Amino acid sequence: MERQSIFVLVLALLFAACQGDNKNTGASRETEAQPSKTEEQTAPLASPPWTAEFNEQKQELELRQHYPDREDIPVEDIVSSLNKKYPQIPLQMLGMHGDTLAVTITDATALSREMGSAGAEAYLAEATFSLTEARGVKAVAFKFEEGDHAMPGVYTRESFQDFN
Fold this sequence. Notes:
This protein is an alpha+beta fold. The chain has helices at 2-33, 37-42, 75-85, 109-114, 116-131; strands spanning 50-55, 60-65, 91-97, 100-105, 139-143, 153-155. The longest helix is centred in the first third of the chain and has 32 residues, at 2-33. The radius of gyration is 26 Å and the shape is globular. The relative contact order is 0.14.
C-alpha cells in the first residue's frame, strides 16, 4: 500500500511538472506569434521589391519600391517573387560573375512576343531593380531568346533612366 502511495505521488508530481511545461510552451508560442523585426525581414516576399506601374496623369511608367527598410533580401526570394507575379516568364538564376547576376528565362515567348514593347520594358526594369536590391548585385545579365519586344543583355538601373 505504501508503494502504491509513493507511485501515485511520483505520477502526480510528473503530471504537474508536465502541465507547468505546457503553460510555458503556450506563453512562448504567444510570444512567437508576434514576428520580430528580424523575422519580418526574413519572411517570404509578397511581391517583388520593385514594381513598374503606369502613371495615368503623367502617361509614363514609374518604379515603386515596396521594401525600403529590408536589407539583405536573398536573390532566391526575389526570383521566387518575380516568378509568382509573372508565372508566364519563368526566371532562373544561373550564378554570380563579379557584381553581375546571370539569369535565364527558359521560355521568353510572353516577354518577347506577347507583352508589347512597354510591357517587356516594364518587366525588365522591375526585374533589374528588384534583383539589384540583393547585396553585391549591380547588374543583371538576362539570357533568353530574342524577340520582337525584348532583347537579352546586361541591364543596370541606369538602363531604365526614362522611368521615374
